[in-house]
Amino acid sequence: MSPARKASALLLAAALPLALAGCGxxxxxxxxxxxxTVTVFAAASLKAPFTQLAEQFEADNPGTTVTLSFAGSSDLxxxxxxxxxxxxxxxxxxxxxxxxxxAGLVEGSPQVFATNVLTIVVPPANPASVSSxxxxxxxxxxxxxxxxxxxxxxxxxTLEQEAGTTLQPVSEEGSVTDVLGKVVSGEADAGLVYVxxxxxxxxxxxxxxxxxxxxxxxxxxxxxxxxSRNKDAAAAFIAAVTGPGGQQILRGAGxxxx
Length: 258
Hints:
Blueprint: H1 3-22, E1 36-43, H2 47-60, E2 64-71, H3 73-81, E3 88-90, H4 94-102, E4 111-116, E5 118-122, E6 143-146, H5 151-163, E7 171-173, H6 176-184, E8 190-194, H7 195-201, E9 206-208, E10 218-224, H8 231-242, H9 244-252
Parallel strand pairs: 1-2, 1-3, 6-7, 6-8
Antiparallel strand pairs: 3-10, 4-10, 5-8, 5-9
Helix pairs in contact: 1-2, 1-8, 1-9, 2-9, 3-4, 8-9
């Protein structure tokens, strides 16, 4: 284990028992063997840090299982509104969280736990020679973006307006990970993804930063779902995300501070 990961694990290990104790223990709906399960619906861009955080949460709370479901925030919000059995919802924007809040489907006030911005990713060889946001609109450049109803798509629309550039994408995807997949597979010359996704891609994709990205910052809120059968475990998981250990994991993945 690297020193940074070991440090984050230690911080998380220290925080989680306190969180569970404050909630009266991780009780609620259970598994077949009598343990507790907390189901977390999270934006696709959170996959890497939430997977790491869930593993640490389970390790520090024997008998508790974290089930993770990743997708576009709008799709997840729709699933929750239709009665999907989620305990926690973590969105990549405040809009989709507000939809659930307005419908009375979340507990209390959502907590903001991270921020993110878009960046350009291209294949390692950068075949279309993309070096700016404006280049994404050049004839012949196969650009992929998120659909407008997804937070990364809404941010893309904001950037188009701010930069005075209209993109003509070859496809619009339902999640940021799908956009990245098109670029990594060579199906696209460029895509707009979060800086965290570009970092996670490693040498499979090349990042092309652009200054306009600072004009569209996505804010990530998290909340317990009102219909949760595992309210204590949900509260403990949220405490882990917003606490020092969870925040260190998120920073390590490239997310900004709330």
